[in-house]
Specification:
This protein is of the alpha+beta class and 321 residues long. The chain is 35% helix and 24% strand. It folds into two domains: 140 residues, Ribonuclease H-like superfamily/Ribonuclease H (Nucleotidyltransferase, domain 5, 2-Layer Sandwich); 106 residues, no CATH class. It is elongated. This is Integrase catalytic domain-containing protein.
Length: 321
């Protein structure tokens, strides 16, 4: 109004009176425009599990619950059969047991979230329950954005899935593997993973060593006899392959006594000997590692002391049929 007056009139000291008249005029009050929409938001989060936002939605008649962690954008999707508060509580209980509990849980004002039993369940879980502003979906915008993202993934994935539940699993995996910040995925931020995967896998890699060391070992732990044979290969840090009567035995270090000139020596002394070991690249082959169906059948797996460990060590190297 002031700008309109300035366009056609020149006067002084009347702007305050005009504004006062505008604020007290019943017609002006009834038909005035909306106020400018102010931008407001939730407090900044500093860690995972600080605040989660949630919402219910559906896609092509399939109803599902979305829960997202604000710090990491880690998103959880669960199919819902109904809008009953009891089913919501069961679903949230499963989510909390799988992924931990947030400090603050934000949702809209839907009946199943506002139900007395649901609010009591949050008290028992020791989770503070907060609600978005009624009739203002923007106040739960974090969940709204994740829903739009989830529906976009569902649209692309559903036709290639057996059912909607399988589709939600694939979509959840795709969303959590997105890069969020600092070149880290939502999954890495949510679970506070700091070590790169390649560095972790390096701890599990071991280069086998060819050996030719005399030893004494037990075929069974209950045996009183130590058999004199030859350790032909170290396949892991504490796992060795022994050849005896055209059979192969796999033993851990505590079932072997390495010998040198009639004297028991430690494994460290054995491995440090230049005459006993050499590195064997995983891409190389040696006569002792030339596996054939006959040699595999001759390997005495049934009598190994650590059968489970052997299978774990060899599941990538030996194709047992």
């Amino acid at each position: 109004m002031e700008s309109l007056c300035r366009k056609f009139f020149i006067f002084n000291s009347l702007y305050a009176r005009i504004k006062d008249k505008y604020n007290s005029c019943e017609v002006c009050i009834e038909f005035r425009r909306n106020k400018k929409q102010l931008i407001s938001g939730w407090p900044e989060v500093t860690e995972s599990h600080e605040r989660w936002h949630s919402d219910m939605t559906e896609y092509l008649g399939n109803r599902f619950l979305l829960v997202t962690d604000i710090f990491s954008h880690f998103t959880i999707l669960r199919k819902m059969r109904s809008l009953h508060a009891r089913e919501l509580q069961e679903t949230l209980s499963n989510i909390f047991s799988d992924f931990g509990k947030p400090k603050i849980f934000v949702s809209d004002n839907a009946t199943l979230f506002r139900a007395e039993s649901t609010m009591e369940a949050f008290k028992n879980w020791d989770v503070y329950q907060a609600f978005s502003i009624p009739m203002c979906p923007e106040s739960n915008g974090h969940a709204e954005k994740r829903i739009a993202l989830a529906k976009n993934h569902i649209k692309k994935t559903l036709s290639n899935c057996k059912n909607f539940t399988e589709c939600l699993k694939k979509c959840q995996l795709a969303i959590t593997e997105r890069i969020v910040r600092n070149n880290k995925t939502a999954y890495e931020l949510f679970f506070s993973l700091t070590t790169p995967v390649k560095d972790i896998l390096a701890n599990y890699h071991y280069e086998p060593k060819v050996m030719n060391v005399q030893c004494k070992f037990k075929k069974c732990r209950e045996d009183a006899t130590w058999y004199e044979e030859t350790v032909i290969e170290q396949i892991h840090k504490n796992c060795f392959r022994i050849q005896s009567n055209n059979k192969y035995f796999f033993r851990k270090g505590d079932a072997i006594n390495c010998m040198f000139k009639g004297k028991i020596i430690t494994q460290a002394e054995t491995l440090s000997s230049n005459l006993s070991t050499k590195n064997l690249s995983s891409t190389e082959s040696s006569p002792t590692r030339s596996y054939t169906p006959d040699t595999i059948n001759n390997a005495d797996f049934a009598q190994t002391l650590e059968a489970n460990d052997i299978l774990n060590c060899f599941y990538e190297e030996i194709n047992i049929k």
